[in-house]
Amino acid sequence: MRFVISTLYALTAAVVTARISVISAPSTIAPGVPFTLTARTTNGLQTTYDVAIAFGLSPSPSHSHTLDTILNSFYLGPSKSNVVDNINFTVAIDAQTAKGVYVLGGASMGLYGVGNSPVLREWNVTVSVGKETGGEWMSSRG
């Protein structure tokens, strides 16, 4: 009996419980050209139903809790919740955006734990707007 209970507990613990932990983007972004943003996931302690994520661009320095100019928002739902794979999104900044330093922000709304408690999570990463998209990938802190 103890073996059965231990086995069931181990199987339950092995269920994937991942959450979005950081966002990453190229260090330089060209105005008007689509580029990829990545939401990186890590194992979590409780189940997560990620509902949606939105991305925005703010002049630097900016208040850390704002998205300012919205780049796009995406429904995540069951197919992109509790996955231990990176989730890629294609967005673009306005073609008229001036070159300079900006804060790229992301915010997601998810339902956490057995009670599906609503949680809003935020990330930001400093990027430059320049001639070509590329350079080192920059990540927010988790």
TrEMBL record:
Keyword Signal: yes
Pfam family, one: Nis1
Residues of the signal peptide: 1-18
Domain of life: Eukaryota
Annotated keywords: Signal
Protein name: Uncharacterized protein
Higher taxonomy: Eukaryota, Fungi, Dikarya, Ascomycota, Pezizomycotina
